[in-house]
């Protein structure tokens, strides 16, 4: 029996743990013996502090990133956070770049926390990313994780903010050279990403085995309809927009083509694929593995759809210069061309998926963007979603 691969913890989880330890030591004068936080996924993380630096008015704590069995470039990388009570003037002047004052649900935090990147953390230089231009490339969820842990330490010790947390990745600038960050407009280091705080191992064979087993379980129950999503974002979209039961969908990561093959082999009659436009747009070019190392021609495919829809050359050039598909959607929306381009892409996506399945299964598709919700869907997607919801008991 294949041994289950070990998952790990994201750079954001490491930073959140360091933030708690540094804030606790700053406010209490004592070093933590046992460090523990809970990730957004609900899993406890208990790292060992590798270094604690105490200076006047500030404390910096470091851990090493535990990536589990994932062959990640940041595996075993040192991650640190420096916490102080002195807020630099430039941060007070530009709170939109630094201040985190509410949690992910919009509730006010008990203290204001200003967050920035230090050595090895990239800086955003182009619009269209998770953070605004000028901000450190620390995404929304990790920022809230860091702020939450600082508030937890301050509340425990009955101390008052505000606080300043600076994330430090000593090896970040070197590692970032092998990533897509420079192309995306993130300069000087790495991004701090993640939505769950957990790094899932990316062994291709193990992932495909897991997908197959999960789909086989649905088939064994006599189900003839299967709902697939690339990841957590697709599941969240189904839940928040349609009230769909998450347990009834199968997360397939980047393996769209293989998952379609499995659905055919297992005898499913209908398949609903739901995913973010940044993933699914690649299917319009027949790219059935959506990982960026396989191919990244998202904007080129959107521009090709634009050509078919008669967009002017100036708009096409602007489209190709966008950093993300979300930014491209915003541009198309401003020009009143978003529906036409999305419907064009959906036709190509449907064509390539049906070609892959050789007509042996009915395939319907829905794609979305965070700012716009559902962008396009195939003709039978709504009916199939209703069948999936009924199956999931929603």
From TrEMBL:
Swiss-Prot/TrEMBL keywords: Cobalamin biosynthesis, Methyltransferase, S-adenosyl-L-methionine, Transferase
EC number: 2.1.1.195
Record-level Gene Ontology MF annotations: cobalt-precorrin-5B C1-methyltransferase activity
Keyword Chloroplast listed: no
Pathway named in the protein's UniProt entry: Cofactor biosynthesis; adenosylcobalamin biosynthesis; cob(II)yrinate a,c-diamide from sirohydrochlorin (anaerobic route): step 6/10
Pfam family, one: CbiD
Top-level taxon of origin: Bacteria
GO biological process, one term: methylation
Known catalytic reactions: Co-precorrin-5B + S-adenosyl-L-methionine = Co-precorrin-6A + S-adenosyl-L-homocysteine
Enzyme class of the recorded protein, top EC level: transferase
Keyword Coiled coil set for record: no
Similarity comment: family membership: Belongs to the CbiD family.
Protein name: Cobalt-precorrin-5B C(1)-methyltransferase
Protein's gene: cbiD
